[in-house]
Structure to design on (887 residues):
């Protein structure tokens, strides 16, 4: 079998000269025998200086550089040394690898500034995320199920009672729990498989016999063969929450017992659905069988026409005037027993003033009427009910002086019954005294119901209460005072504040995620660098015999490049590229939902005005990222008015053909005269100069002392994913207006990729390579020329289109980068397809094929993900140029 023509000889010096890493060769006196062009660029040296200098002349700060000790050790001990440090004179991180070579040293230099800065940013984000969890009281764990090694956050150690400064094993996380509770958790894990599981368990009893209840949320990570590899999740101490729930259940039982003792039944009537509910005591009072379905008709059937008329009139007045009603009704039950009931009811209304529900009580007063009980007996019954009620109850005379308070109310105000009447106002918080006095004055002047929430400043701390009062009439209708229930709502207020705090934390987390846009840009450039490394390494393996001494080093280079490629893919995922959740969005609706959050985000001296009409066309996009745009622009506008104050206006509208000339500057997708949905944020701040306006979307640029300049750069990154634009109008002294312009929604189509058969790549013909990166172009040229192709290069989309037209019929294929200046790869592709649809185009990008299919399937012959190896390029071309390989 023929081995084919001999490969052309490789010029090692030429390869080193064009290598993407810096290289220098030293003799034993540290004199530089050779340094390549990349070494000079990394170290900031002029290439024309003759060789023969000592190494210390090449380094940024002479012999005092941080690299000097490492290089001397490598020379002295004849060992390889790797060292990374930040240069003193140059704003760069440099990685150096010194390898003994003969009597001297071979030194490789790499500029790793992008990698170090990206790593630092990721580490900062992880630390902040952990702080968020710790601040919310949630503990976290991570267990390697193969080794038994475990990690627990500080909060988890506190919850479990574990020491803070010792390493943990998996069994240490089980120690605080009894076996039966561990079984409960294990059952939840087994049922979930590799999905998220949840469970609640309690710890072992302490010396006082108490336990702590823990709510778990975790996930087990499985290997391809089903082996359990890791367990990770969170834990929260819910002991107090369970105790509160149990107290609520006890209160409900006590209320039911009180109703039974007082012979008071409760009822409710949903006016929208007609559904009626009765308490057990209501069944008992009216002697209804247990199977009776609650209904208004069943009650009406017990009374004559006159009684029903009186009840209907009372209900209608309550629904019309909003006043509660009290009415006495008399009838004879089917058993023959006479029945008198005292019925109380009131109507609940929605925000538009429409009645939505009626509810009330019915009290069997038959015994009172039959026996004509004295007023004292009736008062004693009331006192029995009030003392057993779980709420604070107060009864006043017509002047507002308390005549009765139940024990629960005295305990709530931390006063005795004898001092309550004169000192209760002292317990009202200073911020609420005026409101409480005004409400009391209105209740006794208008002799109507009252409802108010206020705070108490008690010796034990601040408590929040809700008072609901109604007038107490006599039989002749005269006003004798008020009866009110006072409920402790401290926990309700606390939970509301906690929800608001968590919403604010979520907003801050979204701001931090905008750093991902910067990571995406870094990953793109890094991918281009890796193309040269990975392809040259794969080429070298083709030329180096299997047993050659350098082959292992080249394989190491390829593996390192592959790990670096994995890093870029992680950065792209962190940036959210190609993974947004696209849906039809109502821009006005999204902003209206954020109204309260936006008002809380602006300064106190700034007022927010919203002008958000309905009926605007929908846009396609990711709702979370659109909210991020709005929040970043609102925050920027508020910061501009923090000293002067003013009105911050946020409006939306539909523009049939926005004019680019109407703005001082336009960023993002170009305005082509097509319709747009506009979202505008206008402030009355100090405005911007043209110099500042040109830089407002640069990462980390800011005019604020505190340096919050990433927000607007994140806005542009999101807009590019939505094919949207942003126009800016500003000048010093007249404020700034940002106008975000979204294209109206269009249908999205997704195409499933097809498999590619194994093919042989024939040689011959011309291939056009269009990429803005020198290294990618040169590597692609080398690979294609090795297979016998004629290669034409272009550095941007515009030049690529010109070369495409000039080559003519000899052109066999085009390798086209997606992201380029001047004219993007997508725009260049559209022109090429329009002029010569028969020429196959291979699209190159750092994003995966799956992420690009929805946009480019049907327009290109294939996809080539960066960075790629030589065989990846050959296989991609063979998919549409090749012939079937022999089996």
């Amino acid at each position: 079998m023929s081995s084919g023509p001999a490969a052309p000889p490789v010029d090692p010096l030429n390869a080193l000269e064009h290598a993407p890493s810096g290289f220098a060769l030293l003799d034993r006196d540290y004199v530089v025998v050779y340094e390549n062009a990349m070494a000079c660029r990394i170290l900031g040296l002029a290439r024309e200086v003759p060789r023969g200098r000592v190494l210390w002349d090449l380094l940024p700060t002479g012999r005092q550089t941080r690299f000097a000790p490492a290089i001397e050790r490598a020379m002295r001990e004849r060992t390889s040394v790797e060292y990374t440090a930040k240069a003193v004179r140059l704003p760069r991180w440099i990685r150096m690898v010194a390898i003994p070579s003969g009597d001297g040293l071979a030194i490789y230099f790499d500029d790793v500034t992008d990698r170090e800065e990206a790593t630092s940013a990721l580490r900062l984000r992880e630390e902040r995320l952990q702080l968020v969890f710790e601040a919310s009281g949630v503990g976290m764990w991570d267990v390697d199920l193969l080794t038994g090694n475990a990690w627990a956050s500080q909060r988890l150690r506190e919850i479990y009672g574990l020491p803070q400064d010792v390493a943990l094993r998996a069994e240490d996380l089980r120690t605080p729990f009894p076996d039966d509770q561990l079984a409960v958790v294990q059952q939840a894990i087994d049922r979930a498989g590799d999905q998220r599981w949840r469970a609640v368990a309690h710890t072992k009893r302490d010396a006082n016999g108490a336990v702590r209840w823990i709510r778990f949320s975790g996930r087990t990570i499985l290997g391809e063969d089903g082996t359990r590899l890791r367990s990770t999740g969170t834990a929260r101490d819910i002991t107090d929450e369970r105790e509160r729930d149990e107290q609520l259940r006890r209160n409900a039982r006590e209320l039911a017992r009180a109703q039974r003792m007082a012979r008071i039944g409760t009822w409710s009537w949903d006016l929208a659905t007609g559904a009626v509910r009765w308490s057990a005591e209501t069944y008992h009072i009216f002697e209804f069988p247990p199977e009776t379905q609650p209904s208004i008709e069943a009650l009406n059937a017990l009374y004559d026409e006159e009684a029903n008329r009186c009840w209907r009139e009372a209900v209608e007045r309550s629904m019309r005037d909003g006043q509660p009603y009290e009415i006495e009704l008399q009838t004879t039950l089917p058993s023959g027993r006479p029945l008198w009931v005292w019925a109380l009811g009131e109507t609940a209304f929605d925000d538009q003033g429409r009645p939505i529900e009626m509810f009330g009580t019915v009290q069997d007063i038959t015994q009172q009427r039959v026996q004509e009980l004295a007023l004292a007996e009736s008062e004693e019954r009331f006192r029995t009910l009030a003392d057993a009620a779980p709420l604070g109850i107060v009864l006043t005379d017509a002047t507002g002086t308390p005549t009765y308070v139940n024990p629960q109310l005295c305990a709530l105000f931390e006063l005795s019954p004898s001092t309550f009447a004169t000192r209760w106002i002292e317990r009202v918080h200073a911020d609420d005294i005026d409101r409480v006095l005004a409400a009391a004055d209105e209740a006794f002047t208008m002799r109507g119901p009252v409802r108010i929430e206020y705070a108490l400043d008690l010796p034990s701390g601040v408590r929040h209460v809700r008072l609901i009062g109604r007038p107490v009439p006599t039989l002749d209708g005269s006003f004798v005072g008020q009866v009110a229930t006072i409920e402790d709502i401290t926990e309700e207020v606390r939970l509301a504040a906690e929800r608001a705090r968590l919403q604010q934390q979520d907003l801050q987390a979204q701001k931090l995620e905008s750093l991902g846009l910067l990571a995406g840009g870094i990953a793109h450039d890094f991918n281009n660098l890796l193309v040269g490394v990975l392809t040259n390494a794969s080429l070298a393996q083709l030329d180096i015999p299997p047993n050659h001494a350098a082959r292992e080093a080249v394989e190491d280079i390829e593996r390192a490049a592959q790990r670096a490629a994995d890093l870029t893919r992680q950065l792209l995922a962190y940036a959210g590229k190609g993974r947004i959740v696209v849906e039809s969005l109502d821009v006005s609706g999204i902003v209206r939902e954020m109204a309260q959050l936006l008002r809380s985000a602006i300064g106190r001296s700034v007022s927010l005005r919203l002008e958000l009409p309905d009926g605007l066309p929908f846009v396609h996009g990711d709702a979370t990222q659109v909210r991020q745009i709005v929040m970043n622009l609102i925050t920027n506008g508020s910061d501009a008015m923090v000293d002067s104050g003013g009105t911050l206006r946020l409006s939306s509208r539909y523009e049939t053909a926005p004019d680019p000339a109407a703005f001082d500057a336009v960023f993002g997708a170009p305005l082509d005269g097509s319709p747009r949905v506009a979202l505008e944020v206008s402030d009355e701040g100090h405005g911007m100069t043209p110099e500042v306006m040109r830089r407002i979307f640069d990462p980390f640029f800011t005019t604020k002392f505190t340096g919050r300049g990433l927000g607007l750069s994140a806005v542009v990154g999101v807009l590019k994913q939505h094919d949207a634009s942003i126009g800016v109008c500003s000048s010093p002294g007249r404020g700034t207006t940002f106008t975000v312009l979204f294209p109206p929604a269009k249908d999205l189509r997704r195409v499933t990729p097809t498999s590619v058969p194994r093919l042989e790549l024939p040689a011959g013909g011309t291939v056009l390579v269009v990429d803005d990166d020198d290294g990618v172009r040169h590597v692609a040229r080398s690979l294609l020329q090795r297979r016998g192709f004629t290669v034409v290069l272009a550095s941007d989309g515009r030049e690529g289109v010109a070369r495409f037209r000039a080559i003519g019929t000899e052109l066999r294929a085009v390798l086209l980068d997606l992201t380029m200046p001047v004219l993007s790869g997508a725009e260049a592709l559209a022109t090429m397809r329009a002029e010569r649809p028969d020429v196959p185009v291979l699209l190159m990008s750092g994003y995966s094929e799956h992420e690009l299919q929805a946009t480019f399937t049907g327009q290109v012959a294939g996809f080539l993900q960066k960075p790629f190896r030589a065989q990846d390029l050959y296989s991609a071309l063979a998919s549409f140029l090749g012939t079937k390989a022999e089996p």
